[in-house]
Amino acid sequence: ERQSWLGHGGLLWVRVAAVLFTCVAFSVAGRIVWLNVGVVDWCIFCWAFSFACTLLVLLVEQLGLQARVPVSWNNFPITVACYATLLCLSASVIFPVFFRQGLNGSSTVRDHCIAATVFSCFATVAYMVEVKLTKARPGEVAGYMATAPGLLKVCQTFVACIIFVLVSQPVSYDRHPALEWCMAVYCICFILSMAVVVLCVGECTGCLPIPFSKFLSAYALLAVIMYLTATIIWPVFQFDKNYNYNRSGNSPNLITVSVFTGLNFLFYLADLAYTARLVFVSV
């Protein structure tokens, strides 16, 4: 069924749809200039980045330039699709939550907000379909980023970025060395996961001084242990009255960080489980 889809241009049309949906979303949202600026800017960035990267993938494939681009084409399109899925999903959630702040009874602004949200949701679905069509299946030869551990790396880095935003507005990790350790965990694991993504997309996995598969296994185990400590330490030192560090005005952010820390721990745990038994052909 998947090969039939691909053979009849299904993947092409899914990407074309994603380009059109994201283009409409940021074009419509760009007219709402007096809403919460930070929220609108973030959402427009999500749609514009996804639009630009997907358009690049379309142009390269239609012009047959895969062999000339300095990236692994087994890894680049699926990486773009996965990041675009998460970006458009975040915009689809964030934009309607905050757009009411700028309505002020204007039906035109309301219509623009609804249209941007609807097309953002359409784009999210289109990217989900693309990921489903292009991810590796058991026994299939594919690039690392098309495998479950590769897709998990994208999720890990995206969740870490959300955590960075939440802990920095205002800064909520500077009250105790234990909280600073949690921040170190977020940073170290983010850097290493992003390094894996860059190495795979840039076809540089052979540059490591050890076999890539051994590096992945060792890193996955280390990340699980580190995130386990952060999952325990963060809520204890933020909400335990014995430490008295909980600031009620920032409590929603702190709770959200706790949730996303636990979520990333599960991502790394799943990554370790997949990596331990994954057999793939390196890019």
Give a verbal description of the structure.
Residues 6-139, 144-280 form the MARVEL domain. It is a multi-pass membrane protein. This is Myeloid associated differentiation marker. Belongs to the MAL family. By secondary structure, this protein is mostly helical. The protein folds into two domains: 1-145, no CATH class; 147-282, no CATH class. Helices cover 72% and strands 0% of the residues. It has nine helices and no strands. It has helices spanning 2-7, 10-29, 37-63, 76-98, 107-134, 148-167, 177-201, 212-239, 251-277. Helix 2 runs antiparallel to helix 5 (107-134), helix 4 packs antiparallel against helix 5 (107-134) and helix 4 runs parallel beside helix 6. The longest helix is centred in the middle third of the chain and has 28 residues, at 107-134. Mean pLDDT is 86; it is low at 1-5 and 279-283.
Name some characteristics of this structure.
single chain; 283 residues; mainly alpha; 2 domains; disordered N terminus; repeat; Myeloid associated differentiation marker
Outline the secondary-structure elements.
Blueprint: H1 2-7, H2 10-29, H3 37-63, H4 76-98, H5 107-134, H6 148-167, H7 177-201, H8 212-239, H9 251-277
